[in-house]
Amino acid sequence: MSVLVNKNSRVIVQGFTGTEGTFHAGQMIEYGTNVVGGVTPGKGGSEHLGKPVFDTVKDAVTKTGADVTIIFVPPAFAADAIMEAADAGIKVIIAITEGIPVKDMMLAKKYIKSKNVTLVGPNCPGVITPGEAKVGIMPGFVFKKGTIGIVSKSGTLTYEAADQIVKAGLGITTAIGIGGDPIIGTPTKDAVEMLMNDPETEAIVMIGEIGGNYEPVAARWIKENGNKKPVVGFIAGQTAPAGRRMGHAGAIIGGAEDTAAAKMAIMRECGIHVVESPAEIGETMLKVLKKK
């Protein structure tokens, strides 16, 4: 099994004919993802990358049966694109766009609450189930199929963790890049919960960053639920000064639990195998699984 996306996912691309949409949709198709079309208002009825283009998400869903969308729409219009997808009956919305205004995301998140939809992102690398579907911007060749789930707030560290896992002779069920913005659709705890409930996922890599409380919330949930599967954790930003934003919009130390040291301490207390460097993820996971 897998979570969120698989070989049966019917994927559309919002912002299909733009530069980013074109490049990454091409990579997704090449990977073997079942891309069934795309949406660019005003270009409905045309064809792009050998796939049909629609004016609206509703048209695309009606004509193709799409159930997953990936969004490459510019920041000013991306929240509308998220709400349009939710309205059209899409089940999994993956928003890649960076720089969506916080106010827009507040409205979009509130709007989709009443819909039966999972939003991943924004400002994320996407989701990949190796060998089945790549719905995102990650380098597909790094990921190999296996039994380790990955949840990461950082895009590049998602790829690093996957590389470490594969080099250790293991593989990945699904990797979820949740995004680093202050307001995202799927916080760490929700993504971890999906993988905990996936029968094929044997263990989880959880990568966080300074800022916010997603990792402490996830760590406490893992402990409260009996540490059902081993988790290897890493927090980026260990040398970041307080009050300065580092990389992602959400990576800024505000409260006592926002620092890397505080998050790592909480994770350890909750039974997570915390590593000091991303270079230790693969070997630590191997040791943990051998003990298990």
From TrEMBL:
Keyword DNA-binding: no
PROSITE patterns: SUCCINYL_COA_LIG_1, SUCCINYL_COA_LIG_2
Keywords: Ligase, Nucleotide-binding, Tricarboxylic acid cycle
Record-listed E.C. numbers: 6.2.1.5
Residues annotated as binding CoA: 17-20, 43, 96-98
Catalysed transformations (reactions): GTP + succinate + CoA = succinyl-CoA + GDP + phosphate; succinate + ATP + CoA = succinyl-CoA + ADP + phosphate
One GO BP: tricarboxylic acid cycle
Associated pathway: Carbohydrate metabolism; tricarboxylic acid cycle; succinate from succinyl-CoA (ligase route): step 1/1
Domain CoA-binding stretches: 4-100
One Pfam family hit: Ligase_CoA
Gene Ontology CC annotation, any one: succinate-CoA ligase complex (ADP-forming)
Residues involved in substrate binding: 159
Molecular function GO labels: nucleotide binding; succinate-CoA ligase (ADP-forming) activity; succinate-CoA ligase (GDP-forming) activity
Residues of the active site: 248
UniProt keyword Phosphoprotein present: no
Family: Belongs to the succinate/malate CoA ligase alpha subunit family.
Quaternary data: Heterotetramer of two alpha and two beta subunits.
Annotated NCBIfam families: PRK05678.1, sucCoAalpha
Job description of the protein: Succinyl-CoA synthetase functions in the citric acid cycle (TCA), coupling the hydrolysis of succinyl-CoA to the synthesis of either ATP or GTP and thus represents the only step of substrate-level phosphorylation in the TCA. The alpha subunit of the enzyme binds the substrates coenzyme A and phosphate, while succinate binding and nucleotide specificity is provided by the beta subunit.
Protein name stated in the entry: Succinate--CoA ligase [ADP-forming] subunit alpha
Gene source species: Chryseotalea sanaruensis
Gene that encodes the chain: sucD
